[in-house]
Design brief:
heterodimer, A: alpha/beta, B: 237 residues, Rossmann fold, nine-stranded mixed sheet, 7 helices, binds zinc ion
Chain lengths: 418, 237
């Protein structure tokens, strides 16, 4: 990596300076602006920075920041790791991450789903990790069948080793043109986007249904064509992961919830492709307690607030699973650019699970959420600000679920809590 | 209507990309608020469309699901029978296009629709994404239409339909009008939970199915409408 041509070295150094300035002026994590300056000076920079490293790309609708963090933490067992830890998941962020750790022999990059084909082409990554695809902020994201189609085209004919969640039919379809795939049964909590076969459009039958008999509930197969769930090499089984040798590993993560156990199963399969055994990887996964503010608990005026991020319907489902049903809850929703300007997705979330809990609603689009809860028959209190919501709550533990920019605003109030 | 109001949501497995469930939930809430027992039927694309429903809903979707949905509805025939019987329908975005004679497929190729509305659609040059506001046909006596659109379609209205509204902000059909109405069918590009932002439109559909309706408490609907309309129209609101 130290063999970068002079122009690329200069571009990368200038990028780092801009990143330092951005952090110093408090305008951001600095991870994107640095990369943008670098890319403008040297469009080929990403390719050059990626050369000669063992690189994994991580993509999905949900859990990519957390899974990237888990993989990077485990790989430190083997040596220095370059990674975009702040979730800056487009090429500018990748340049910034790689130029920040020039000599790291290993790299793990979280990649925005739309950018995966481009980044794979540019970097020639040896490993690609794919977890799930579901409806996201549709006013800016690509449509997900189309997205999976683009993954197929990008992976076809490349040597990359893909690690993919075979419990998600769309991910399976997107991954199945790859030369080599390790299938992980990581579960699928949100199913509203996979009732139809991505191959032929026919109905997908699920395990436990009349058509599928006693198969496990994660099993699926098309009723009209041959497309079906591949046999997994790795299996998430409750609190345990079973590896391809049949060894059972208790996860014991500090990160909460089934979605994170699934992320950990995928991470173990990914680092195995780097030659790292679960026995060495697991202790490192267990050291991860929060990821860019997610799952962290912050204190204010005698209240302990646990921060959960939920950016789309599948993310809300995961946040509800982690949330403690005995606690009051603050919900905060914005609709700025990164959130998607359209709040329609609120109607895909089933809020009835909140029945019986004290619910406080805030955020820039609180009226959209208020109406949504009203129609669901969930009583709530509308608050003009996050502070007002906190002040209205009794002392003690409180859960907070917020979407992207709402989450960042709350995190900033607590000094960019990590 | 028989003993209960039957709302039929067509193909949530194919055509439900943008919170389309919201329209069914809003109709259910507003019918129940009038003491009308209501049931929502989710009809998957592998199942026949029941013919005895009162209000049919069909939502938005990607290109491939839209083509598949149109093919299956044409083959099934249940929706066509229900409409011939006098059932009401709200068709949204991709579902709206399916109701016409033709719409544009993945590569812009023409795909035949159900011909329940005298419209024809094709792919436009640019994606229309953003808030939309429009003045509704005065004959319908409805307040300003508000919602969000996200589509690439251009729709031409034939003599058999009337425009639902004239756009103030947004693209709609592409000719200054948005949506259309014919008999008891409403088509619109306002995607997802269009009825959450337009409770009067929900009540129009309900009144077609069950007759005149007493008013209900609209506080949260109204507050959201006021906020959105003033955000989009500013002083014009
Ligand atoms: Zn199939």
């Amino acid at each position: 990596m130290s063999q970068l041509p002079l122009r690329a070295q200069l571009a990368s150094a200038l990028g780092r300076t801009a990143a330092t300035l951005s952090r110093a002026t408090g305008r951001g994590d600095g991870s994107v602006i640095g990369g943008r300056v670098g890319l403008m000076l040297e469009p080929d920079l990403l390719r050059k920075l990626a050369t000669d490293r063992k690189l994994a790309l991580v993509s999905a609708t949900n859990g990519k920041t957390t899974t990237t963090r888990l993989i990077a933490s485990a790989l430190m067992e083997l040596g220095e790791v370059a990674t975009n830890a702040f979730g800056a998941n487009m090429p500018a962020g990748h340049v910034s991450a790689l130029s920040g750790a020039k000599h790291a022999p290993f790299a793990v990059l979280e990649v925005d789903e739309k950018y995966l084909p481009e980044v794979l082409d540019t970097t020639n990554a040896g490993i690609v990790t794919l977890m799930n695809l579901s409806r996201d902020q549709m006013d800016r994201a690509a449509e997900i069948w189309l997205l999976a189609q683009k993954w197929r085209r990008a992976l076809a004919g490349k040597p990359a080793h893909v690690i993919a969640n075979c419990d998600d039919p769309l991910v399976t379809w997107g991954a199945s043109t790859a030369a080599r795939v390790t299938w992980v049964s990581g579960g699928q909590r949100w199913r509203e986007d996979s009732w139809c076969c991505p191959e032929c459009g026919g109905p997908l039958d699920r395990g436990g249904s009349r058509e599928m008999g006693q198969q496990g509930s994660v099993h699926w197969a098309c009723r009209e064509c041959t497309f079906h769930r591949p046999e997994p090499d790795w299996v998430l089984d409750g609190e345990d992961v079973i590896d391809p040798h049949g060894r059972r590993w208790r996860l014991d993560l500090q990160l909460p919830g089934e979605a994170n156990r699934s992320n950990a199963a995928i991470a173990l399969a990914t680092v195995d492709a780097f030659g790292l055994d679960p026995a060495r990887a697991l202790p490192r996964l267990r050291t991860v307690t929060s990821v860019a503010g997610r799952y962290t608990t912050v204190e204010r005026d005698g209240r302990a607030l646990r921060l959960l991020l939920a950016k789309n319907p599948a993310g809300w489902l995961e946040a509800f699973e982690v949330s403690d049903p005995r606690l009051p809850i603050i919900l905060s929703v914005n609709a700025q650019g990164p959130d998607g300007r359209d709040t329609s997705w609120l109607w895909d979330v089933d809020y009835r699970i909140l029945r019986g809990r004290p619910v406080y609603v805030t955020g820039e689009r609180r009226l959209d959420l208020a109406l949504r809860l009203d129609v669901a028959g969930i009583p709530f209190q509308l608050c003009d600000s996050f502070d007002q919501a906190v002040a209205a709550l009794p002392l003690g533990r409180i859960d907070v679920i917020a979407n992207y920019t709402a989450f960042q605003q709350i995190r900033t109030e607590f000094g960019r809590a990590v | 209507m028989q003993s209960e109001l039957s709302i039929v949501w067509i193909y949530p497995d194919l055509l439900s990309t943008y919170g389309d469930q919201g329209n069914a939930l809003v109709l259910e809430q507003r019918a129940r608020a009038r003491g009308v027992p209501t049931r929502i039927h989710h009809v998957r694309s592998s199942d026949p469309v029941p013919q005895q429903g009162d209000i049919y809903l069909i939502g938005g979707g990607e290109d491939r699901p839209q083509i598949l949905g149109a093919e299956r509805l044409r083959k099934d025939g249940g929706l066509q029978s229900a409409i011939a019987r006098g059932a009401a329908m709200l068709a949204v975005c991709a579902g709206y296009q399916i109701m016409g004679s033709v719409f544009g497929g993945e590569e812009g190729q023409p795909v035949p629709g159900l011909e329940l509305l005298d419209i024809s659609s094709s792919r436009g040059e640019r994606r229309a994404v953003g808030e939309l506001a429009a003045e509704v046909d005065p004959a319908l006596r409805l307040p300003t239409l508000t919602g969000f659109e996200n589509h690439m379609g251009v729709t031409r209205l034939g003599p058999g339909v009337r425009p639902l509204s004239r756009t103030i902000v947004g693209t709609g059909n592409g000719d200054g009008t948005e949506g259309c109405v014919a008999g008891k069918i409403i088509g619109t590009y306002l995607h997802g939970p269009a009825l959450a932002r337009n409770p009067a439109l929900a009540d129009l559909l309900l009144s077609w199915a069950i007759g005149p309706l007493p008013p209900v408490n609209d506080e949260w609907y109204q507050r959201l409408r006021d906020e959105r309309l003033s955000a989009v129209l500013g002083d014009q609101a």
